[in-house]
Design the sequence.
């Protein structure tokens, strides 16, 4: 079974999508339609913006989403996925690939999500840290001992878990995880404590936007971040999208479940085509995984 997987925030890079825009009239039309929908030229920032500009949450999320969606739409008529998943923000691109969400509706939702999360970051400052070389259970236990201000956020692959929380809490956790034997415990340069309770203020505005958007039954299962299980019910898809803001990304579990359910080849759609493939290889080294 063919599986499409979509990267999330942090998949941005200067110049992203410029080659597609310049080489494909279809891509150009999509980028220009996106600019019109948003009311500003997102494509100009993607093609010519600096790394710092692309790191702003309000820019990063629609940029990463649009890049993935354009790559997917350019393959229409080619290989179609039989199951999909997206890492955090990538879940919105995955829904487009599964036919559950129109790409324009998805773009407006992602913009609302980015604005809501940016506001939550400013109201409740926080950060994240990547922990490498420890069992998930060890990281979970140390986070629990520190308290609710630090939580597991991204289960990326075996031996790599990203934690999220308050600035002081993450600093404390990093020191304790190093003492516990982590090969690396690095505070990340991110805009806030994503996938943690500090994102709760963003949920209400996102909920309103999701409820106002039309979702269709997908033509293939989407393995959602919150449960790591395949979903086809539009109402459950919407509920999981709302919960995703404060819940961990269970990517390791998603990869295990997709493989167990018959995935035989993975295609990473968007970003630099390497990050998600790297995670897959950590789960199953022999699993075929390519960039779309």
Sequence:
């Amino acid at each position: 079974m063919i599986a499409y997987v979509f990267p999330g925030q942090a998949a941005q890079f200067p110049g992203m999508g410029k080659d597609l825009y310049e080489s494909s009239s279809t891509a150009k039309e999509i980028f220009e339609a996106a600019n019109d929908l948003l009311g500003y030229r997102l494509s100009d920032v993607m093609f010519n913006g600096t790394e710092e500009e692309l790191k702003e949450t309000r820019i990063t999320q629609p940029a990463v989403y649009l890049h993935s969606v354009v790559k997917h739409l350019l393959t229409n008529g080619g290989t179609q996925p039989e199951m999909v998943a997206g890492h955090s923000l990538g879940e919105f691109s995955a829904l487009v690939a599964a036919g559950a969400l129109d790409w324009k509706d998805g773009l407006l939702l992602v913009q609302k999500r980015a604005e809501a999360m940016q506001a939550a970051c400013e109201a409740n400052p926080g950060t994240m840290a990547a922990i490498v070389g420890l069992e998930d259970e060890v990281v979970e236990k140390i986070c629990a001992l520190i308290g609710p201000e630090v939580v597991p956020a991204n289960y990326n692959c075996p031996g790599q878990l990203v934690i999220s929380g308050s600035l002081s809490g993450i600093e404390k956790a990093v020191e304790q995880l190093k003492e516990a034997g982590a090969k690396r415990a690095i505070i990340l340069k991110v805009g806030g404590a994503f996938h943690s309770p500090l994102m709760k203020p963003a949920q209400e505005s996102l909920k309103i936007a999701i409820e106002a958007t039309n979702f269709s039954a997908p033509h293939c299962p989407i393995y959602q971040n919150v449960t790591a299980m395949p979903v086809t019910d539009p109402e459950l898809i919407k509920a999981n999208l709302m919960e995703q803001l404060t819940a961990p990304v269970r990517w390791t579990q998603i990869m295990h479940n997709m493989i167990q359910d018959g995935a035989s080849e993975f295609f990473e759609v968007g970003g630099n085509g390497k990050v998600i493939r790297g995670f897959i290889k950590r789960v199953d080294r022999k699993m075929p995984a390519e960039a779309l």
User: Anything to note?
Assistant: The beta strands are 2-6, 83-86, 127-132, 150-157, 160-165, 184-187, 222-223, 230-231, 265-268, 289-291.
